[in-house]
Write a structure and sequence with these properties.
The protein is α/β, with parallel strands linked by helices. The protein has seven helices and eight strands.
Length: about 190
């Protein structure tokens, strides 16, 4: 079975997942600080090592990853809901105007609405916008907000980011291809 290295080296800077044969071929062990990489048994395990939300491993915990963007006069926002490392729900939408903060807030508010509708208690909200956390946290004390560093290889933050990037340009077909590859890599059914 193929093994994978998860690399997080801020000096190079190099982040990513490399199969063992490529890692060896590139001679990365000699180029990197020993604490910046770790060998994992599977791609899924290596990808999860990038997760900034420890609770993603809890089989009973509901977790939302949200994101929003603004480009060419269009707000795109969305979220995914996880439970036990499986995506149980995803949502995205577009609206004309506003700005990036509004898009981020729309994503969080829709995820909160989902949790309320399903009577989910004590969910976790992984957000890459400090503005949204400051806006919502005082009024939703039953939700644990976690600040996720954007574009940091957290697999589910990356998933939502890509979902919005494909759907903002009416590229739903490419999104379907990306989604299948993502699910295949992380062995999600």
């Amino acid at each position: 079975m193929t093994k994978y290295y998860a690399i997080k080296d801020s000096q190079m800077p190099l982040y990513g997942i490399f199969c063992k044969s490529r890692f060896d071929r590139l001679g990365l062990e000699k180029k990197l600080n020993k604490s910046s990489f770790k060998l994992h048994r599977s791609y899924r395990e290596a990808a999860l090592s990038f997760s900034q939300c420890e609770e993603v491993y809890n089989k009973n915990q509901y977790i939302a990853y949200t994101d929003g963007s603004y480009k060419n006069g269009m707000c795109t926002y969305g979220f995914v809901i996880l439970r036990g490392f499986k995506i149980v729900y995803e949502f995205f939408d577009r609206i004309k105007g506003y700005d990036c903060n509004v898009a981020e807030n729309l994503a969080v508010s829709h995820a909160i609405a989902y949790f309320r509708e399903k009577n989910i208690e004590n969910p976790i909200m992984c957000v890459d916008s400090q503005h949204s956390i400051r806006f919502f946290k005082p009024n939703y004390r039953n939700i644990k907000f976690i600040k996720i560093k954007s574009h940091s290889n957290d697999p589910f933050n990356f998933y939502v980011d890509m979902m919005l990037s494909y759907t903002s340009g009416n590229k739903e077909k490419q999104y379907g291809i990306f989604k299948k590859k993502f699910y295949d890599h992380l062995r999600i059914k």
